[in-house]
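To: structure desk
From: M.T.
Subject: fold request, one chain
Message: Could you run this one when you get a chance? Sequence is below, nothing fancy, just the single chain.
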Amino acid sequence: MRGSEFTELKAFVAVVERASFARAAEHLGLSPSALSQTIRLLEARLGTRLLNRTTRSVAPTVAGEQLHARIAPLFRDMAQAVAEASAAAGKTGGTLRINTLGMAARQLIAPRLGRFHRAHPEVALDIVVNDGLSDIVAGRFDAGIRVGARLEKDMIAVRLTPDVKMVAVASPDYLARRSTPQSPADLQAHACINWRLQADGRAYRWEFEKKGQRIEVEVQGPLVTNHSDIGVAAALQGLGIAYAFDREQVDAHLAQGQLVQILADWAITRPGLFLYHPSRRHAPAALRAFIDCLRDQDLRVE
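Reply: Done. Structure tokens follow.
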């Protein structure tokens, strides 16, 4: 394979995996026009269209999907081999793609970005914040961060935080208009801000427990979201009751009286945050360094 052919195929994989010429060009260090020309040369050499382009999106054709399915694993294997060779030489580099919950991005990743970059300047972080349940293998991420009960199967999991307590909250204005629920069953008569599980499209059934009695409630309301920030913002504006995984996200609002916790005696504790990655792959040096940084609780150097 000539060098130009390798460059063209690498560019093609980058566009497919990022579903965007702009994002792929940024990743490759090219201009969008140069990347577009590279793809045109590849299509001309193969004699077939590989990508369908519109002003808003890009997606592989049938031929493009077939080509990507064959060559993408080869590029990932090469990247892994290079990472392992660098690790053997005591070097940490490359791009690390992480899919994370918003609460992990706020609590763990954001405060440590400077520290990690100073310690590992050759590592480029690609952080995608998604409160849904994304498939990190299909999304071609190196790792994901989720609460323990929502981990994908066949993964190596590393605990990052202690267990977390879920919190049902509403604004004083909403409770003044609608009264305060006294039991989980009362939620069915209230406006609730729901959370959709992206993996299968289902809305989350709110879970409660008291004295060994466990209840799941299917709630309804004016808003469904897969991002906790939106749910808390809606509760602050009086749209209804929100159920938060992240106590730190609502603590300040509770202290200031902007939100009120309800059904506190029914609150459940869920497994904390875990970083997970595919078990079939040796964790690259960059990922091991990232895990060490997230697990280090001393932030005084920041």
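Reply (cont.): The two ends are 47 Å apart (CA to CA). Let me know if you need anything else for the meeting.
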